[in-house]
């Protein structure tokens, strides 16, 4: 039997007291013996894409690349390789001001690359990262998951699906400011129901 490979992505700016980190800890622990690669976007912030990166991904030739462009493409390639190698991706998603943390958006912008993680065909866009399971661990103070003011989880589900990752499960601790004890108990129950 092959070893399960997990990519864990933590995005909370907080370390102590971070509920999304606590949830990713608990979720990953449900896969004993798995090989886990951790990408902590608070410990190692990613650069935001810029004109140089966009120019390269639109098809500029290698000969014309600057050192900065080469570095950003190499980083993008590394992040994409982590995704390709993983069977399961566990993403910690604290909701900041109704949306995803900017650190997570920077990661998305570096991994969503035409011709690499998705492509355009006559039938429309096609995701190239198929056959993967994603577990999102959402934490929020007052934004209820899947409510009209939750812009974080629908966005993340959509962009993951766009890249071919359609097996997405959500664990949510979503009203921590209103009922912290009940919310955490509910989230732990959701984790316990996840199939390993």
**Poorly predicted runs of 5 or more residues:** none
H/E topology pattern: EHEHHEHEEEHEH
Rg calc? 17 Å
The proportion of strand residues reads: 15-25%
Q: Tell me the span between the first and last alpha carbons.
A: 15 Å
Look up the CATH topology.
Rossmann fold
How many strands appear in the DSSP assignment?
Answer: 7
Helix content: 25-40%
- Summarize model confidence as the mean pLDDT: 93
Quick one: CATH class? Alpha Beta
Our count of domains comes out at 1
Class by alpha and beta content: alpha/beta
CATH superfamily: Flavodoxin domain
Q: What is the architecture at the second tier of CATH?
A: 3-Layer(aba) Sandwich
Basic shape: globular
Assembly of the depicted chains: single chain
Largest sheet: 5 strands, parallel
Describe the protein.
The structure is a single chain. With 196 residues, the chain is α/β, with parallel strands linked by helices. It has a single domain (5-192), classed as Flavodoxin domain (Rossmann fold), CATH 3.40.50. The protein is built from six helices and seven strands; from the N terminus they run βαβααβαβββαβα. Helix 1 links the parallel strand 1 (5-10) and strand 2. The mean pLDDT is 93.
């Amino acid at each position: 039997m092959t070893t399960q490979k997990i990519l864990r992505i933590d995005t909370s700016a907080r370390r102590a007291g971070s509920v999304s980190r606590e949830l990713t800890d608990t979720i990953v622990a449900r896969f004993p013996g798995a090989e886990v690669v951790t990408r902590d976007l608070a410990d190692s912030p990613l650069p935001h894409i810029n004109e140089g990166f966009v120019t390269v991904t639109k098809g500029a030739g290698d000969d014309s690349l600057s050192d900065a462009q080469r570095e950003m493409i190499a980083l993008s390639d590394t992040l994409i390789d982590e995704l390709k190698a993983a069977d399961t991706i566990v993403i910690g998603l604290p909701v900041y001001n109704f949306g995803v943390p900017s650190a997570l958006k920077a990661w998305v912008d570096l991994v969503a690359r035409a011709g690499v993680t998705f492509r355009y065909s006559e039938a429309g866009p096609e995701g190239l990262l198929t056959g993967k399971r994603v577990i999102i661990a959402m934490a929020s103070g007052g934004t209820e998951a899947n409510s009209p003011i939750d812009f974080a989880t629908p966005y993340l589900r959509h962009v993951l699906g766009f890249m071919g990752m359609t097996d997405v499960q959500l664990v949510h601790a979503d009203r921590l400011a209103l009922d912290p004890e009940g919310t955490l108990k509910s989230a732990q129950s959701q984790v316990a129901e996840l199939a390993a």
